[in-house]
From TrEMBL:
Coiled coil: none annotated. Keywords: Hydrolase. Gene3D superfamilies: alpha/beta hydrolase. This is Alpha/beta fold hydrolase. The keyword Hydrolase applies. One of its GO terms (molecular function) is hydrolase activity. Pfam families: Abhydrolase_6 (PF12697). Residues 4-229 form the AB hydrolase-1 domain. It comes from Falsiruegeria litorea. The keyword Hydrolase applies. The lineage of its organism: Bacteria, Pseudomonadati, Pseudomonadota, Alphaproteobacteria, Rhodobacterales. It comes from the Bacteria.
Amino acid sequence: MTPIVFVHGFLGGSRQWMGQTEALGGFNVIALDLPGFGKNAHLDALDSIARFAEWALGELSARGIEQFTLIGHSMGGMVVQEMIARAPQRIASLVLYGTGSIGVLPGRFETIGTSKRRVSTDGTVATARRISATWFLEREKAPAYEDCAVIAEKCSLQSMLTGLDAMEGWSGSDSLSNIETKTLVIWGDQDRTYPWSQTQQLWQSIPDANLAVIPGCAHAAHLEKPGLFNMILRDFSAA
């Protein structure tokens, strides 16, 4: 069975995918921690989405994983778009979740420039907790909020600023029509980071892409409505 690879977003980590790892029993699930984040928070973050993609492809090769289903969330969705542009033959199917094709994030809860200024003035812990809250419809009251905030707090100032710079300088719009791999786009209908316009662009620009909209969720639908998210993912992965 084709392995499933998860790539987390900004301030995320592999631990956020535990519910999917458990739900996808029978599949070989690999959840990466990008340099500067999660279990690799001790490493320096990379300065471009392209370099994150190259690192991820190299890491998977080092683990002996040559072909896989690829799932990217938020900034991780940018990374996986770069991965498929570089190695389309390695990716059996693609899931773009809570993400878009441009890094400037129009419609985001705040501009990337504002996030960079605030992390420099407020500090990393306050920034980690504040941004993590925006991922959930109920913000800090969401059951999964605290765990996400703890993961985000591991990030250094360098990782936060470099990650924001990497996103701000990236665009994958011109490559969408070249994606021939079976693709699913997933979006929570109350996402505060990626508005519908970006989701719609992915869905309509990638040939034959499928779309799943999860109602009553913000940016972390896989944690807010894991049962529905996992059912959609299992159905797509098994097809």
